[in-house]
Design a protein that fits this description.
The protein is an alpha/beta fold. The chain has two domains: about 190 residues, D-Maltodextrin-Binding Protein, domain 2, CATH 3.40.190; about 90 residues, Periplasmic binding protein-like II (D-Maltodextrin-Binding Protein, domain 2, 3-Layer(aba) Sandwich), CATH 3.40.190.10. The protein is about 35% helix and about 15% strand. It contains 13 helices and 14 strands. The strands form five sheets. Strands 10-9-11-8-12 form a five-stranded mixed β-sheet, with helices on both faces. It has a three-stranded parallel β-sheet with strand order 4-1-5. It has a two-stranded antiparallel ribbon with strand order 2-3. α2 crosses α8 and α2 packs antiparallel against α12. It is globular. It holds the Pfam family SBP_bac_3. Belongs to the bacterial solute-binding protein 3 family. This is Amino acid ABC transporter substrate-binding protein.
Length: about 350
Amino acid sequence: MLCGALLGGTALPAPAVAQPVVSAPFTISTLETVRTRGYVICAATGLLPGFAQVSPEGLWSGFDIDICRAIAAAVFGDPSKVEFRPLSGQSRFAHLATGDIDVVSRNAAWTMARDTQYGVTYAGVSFYDGQAFMVPDRVGAVSAYELEDITICVAGGSESETMMEEFFFRNQVSFDTLVYEDREDLALAYRSSQCDALTGSASWLQAVRRTLPEPSAHSILPERLSKDAFGPVVRSNDAQWRDIIAMTLNVLITAEELGVTSANIESMLSARTMAIRRLLGVEPSVAGRLGLRETWMRDVIAAVGNYGEIYARHFGSNTSSALLRGQNALWTNGGLMYAPTLR
């Protein structure tokens, strides 16, 4: 409640326009709620191979899933203390705003509308995406600038179609299109060689490639025609919870930058580098300000590895559909992944 008083004998003029005060629907902190419940409730996409998938036994795995497990490790020191819920694009933010879930970790691009209209906020960027092209080896292209006189599968009337047309217009290249409205139809047409290339977000293209008989015979070209940023989303009215999620992402990125991995973390405890000592809780850090124990950052890395380990686990050369890091490389390697200093 906001209280005020008049001092002295002169009344102050009332403001010309009174602004309504909107109360937040949740007064108990998310961290307190999660701790009382005993686990984090994390929403992910129902199926996007590489990002989120469920085995026949009901086991979840994927890049976005590991982000959720990292959050559970930060709060509880145990990555298994998380419940996953598949949510469609239409309902992902409604369940978050009403308190049914604690965080959304899925391919929902960060936009101004999403960050301002639904009572939610993005805690950071976990994956940079953008429109790309996928081609079979028979096309013989290693760059989108080499594509010419080919047929491209694209969603009709979509932003992808517009961006593709602008790209080829700028480069004065001739091409044909095979248009479908449904993504499944596009994937089927590409799979049956009705077109020479498929265009869409790189994250979707890698999911399609995993379903092909010979994934290694297809390449996602490095150029990006658009920009999208994915990341975990939380309610707007809990700064502490937002900071916990944001700092968890920062820990994953910083650990890779400092060379701290899930494999060498124990030996790194004796490191003399102050940044590493703070990261692993050997020296005082920001943990107390977040309401977490001093070793929470160490627990996150031990549970899921650093950012590079997570990326390699789901998109690396040993997977069925490797995806070049590109924008998702560290800033020191020409990418966009960058984290504030942990101090």
